[in-house]
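R.M. (postdoc): so does anyone remember the format we settled on? I'll just put the structure tokens first.
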């Protein structure tokens, strides 16, 4: 999935908190092929965003998903996009067209949502950015595939059937590829990555909250380095 030549902001009458659009780093080729593991991060203090991203990049994981689970998420995305040129930063946990628009303004290079609705898919299509729509059933996979999308986020991976489910899906839906996320650990990640329809996995184990709060960037770099060797 490659970003189109222009990025259109989905229509929404509510004002944006961020007013200057930060240029996003373009992605050539498939988002699923950039790294074996995508760190899924929750950032409460935007001042930690840049050193956190630099540690992950130094460890060999340039693709970073900043989740919209805190008020600091968009500002954290903006800072990473502006100050860490080697990072490919995207925004996850997107649940509305407005959040698509805000993510574009913040400089997101890609978008991720936990589930899909027609309005949300329309907004992400209009954005011109690569995105991973969230799916957990065959019907949802088929609905997304009808829009011409073959790469998706399988969430919540472990709770929704895990590796056996994805292995079974490969038979009837051989053209679809996934980024499983949710409950995956450094120990279970290799089993997912061994599947032919899995391009990468999402993981939150790379940025333990105690390490982030303590500013232990060396520890996060080492965890990223370990994960970068899984593919």
């Amino acid at each position: 999935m490659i970003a189109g030549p222009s990025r259109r902001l989905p229509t929404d009458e509510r004002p944006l908190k961020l007013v200057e659009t930060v240029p996003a780093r373009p992605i050539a080729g498939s988002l699923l092929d950039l790294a074996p593991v995508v760190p899924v991060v929750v950032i409460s203090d935007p001042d930690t965003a840049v050193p956190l991203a630099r540690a992950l990049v130094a460890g060999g994981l340039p693709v970073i998903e900043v989740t919209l689970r805190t008020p600091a998420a968009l500002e954290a995305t903006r800072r990473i996009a502006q100050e860490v040129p080697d990072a490919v930063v995207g925004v996850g946990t997107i649940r509305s067209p407005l959040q698509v628009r805000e993510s574009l303004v913040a400089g997101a290079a890609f978008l991720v949502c936990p589930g899909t609705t027609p309005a949300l898919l329309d907004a992400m299509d209009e954005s011109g950015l690569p995105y991973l729509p969230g799916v957990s059933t065959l019907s949802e996979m088929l609905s997304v595939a009808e829009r011409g999308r073959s790469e998706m986020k399988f969430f919540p991976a472990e709770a929704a059937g895990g590796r056996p489910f994805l292995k079974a899906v490969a038979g009837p839906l051989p053209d679809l590829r996934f980024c499983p996320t949710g409950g995956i650990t450094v120990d279970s990640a290799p089993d997912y990555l061994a599947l032919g329809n899995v391009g990468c996995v999402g993981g939150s184990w790379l940025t333990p909250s105690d390490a982030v709060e303590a500013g232990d960037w060396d520890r996060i770099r080492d965890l990223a380095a370990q994960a970068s060797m899984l593919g």
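R.M.: ...and that's the designed sequence above, right after the tokens. Also worth knowing: Confidence is low (pLDDT under 50) at residues 1-16. Residues 59 and 88 are 14 Å apart (CA to CA).
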